[in-house]
Amino acid sequence: TAGGDGEIITILLVDDIPETRENIKKLLAFEPDFKVVGSVGTGREGVQVAKDLRPNIIVMDINMPDMDGIQATTLITEAVPTVAVIMMSVQNDPDYLRRAMLAGARNFLTKPILPDELYNTIRTVHARNKPIAAQYSALQQMPDQSLLRPSTPAEGEGDRPGHVIVVYSPQGGAGCTTIATNLASGLMKEGIRALLVDADLQFGDVGVFLNLQAQS
After folding, report:
1. Are 203 and 177 in contact (CB under 8 A)?
2. pTM for this entry
3. Distance CA 143, CA 102 (A)
């Protein structure tokens, strides 16, 4: 198959125009590595079905009457972080693109969508999202969820390794530094030490957020 190893990419379609959903579904049916697992007409339905079905990809219209694609994407990426959202719009507006990326969307398509553009975008987004989704899935399967709660070593434990919390986004400007610095500050309590590491060695700005002065 076009997927390379027989992998099936599950897809949810969210658009308030039934004809648009049906046309995209027909286009995707030509590719053996795509499987449309759901097709809904409102943003609220999209959020709920995303939680229920947990597809690999969501192709979502940005303009919907009940809840626009931006708000729906924000809720979906918070509730189902393994999902990758591709936004659609008839307007090729840089402001729409910026808002979509900040909401957590992984790519942006302008209607009318060409078949090859649709296929390539879905495959590229899925390939890039696979390691991210695997990390989230591994965290969810861990029996000990105490990594999200600061704790002091129990008596007799000695110097055990600390917990690691990673704040990550594939897109710049998503607010990772703000979240990481606030999280580190919130974890710092009496008897608990927090180490804050900015992995962006070239453009990291944690020092600016903490108002640190360079030492000569």
Report:
1. no
2. 0.66
3. 31
H helices within the chain, ranges in order? 18-29, 43-53, 69-79, 94-103, 115-141, 176-187, 206-209
Closest to 45 (Cα-Cα) out of 21, 10, 16, 20 = 16
Cα separation of 83 and 106, whole Å? 10
Strand order in the sheet with 34-40: 34-40, 9-14, 57-61, 84-89, 107-110
DSSP class of residue 203 equals T
Query: How confident is the model over 148-168, as pLDDT tens digits?
Result: 444 455 444 455 556 777 776
Answer for the pair 112, 67: CB distance below 8 angstroms, yes or no: no
Q: Give per-residue pLDDT as tens, 172-187.
A: 555 677 777 767 776 7
3-state class (DSSP) for residue 4: coil
Q: Strand 34-40 relative to strand 57-61: parallel, antiparallel, unpaired?
A: unpaired
Classify each residue of 154-172 as buried b or exposed e, where b means 16 or more C-beta atoms within 10 Å of its C-beta: eeeeeeeeeeeeebeeeee
Residue 7 CA to residue 9 CA, distance in Å, equals 7
Residues with Cβ within 8 Å of residue 179, at least 6 apart in sequence: 167
Structure tokens given for 99: 């808002």
**CA nearest 49: which of 98, 85, 89, 8?**
85
pLDDT computed for residue 99 by the predictor: 87
Least confident residue range of 32-41, 62-71, 134-143, 146-155: 146-155
Identify residue 30 by its one-letter amino acid code.
F
Which pLDDT belongs to residue 9? 98
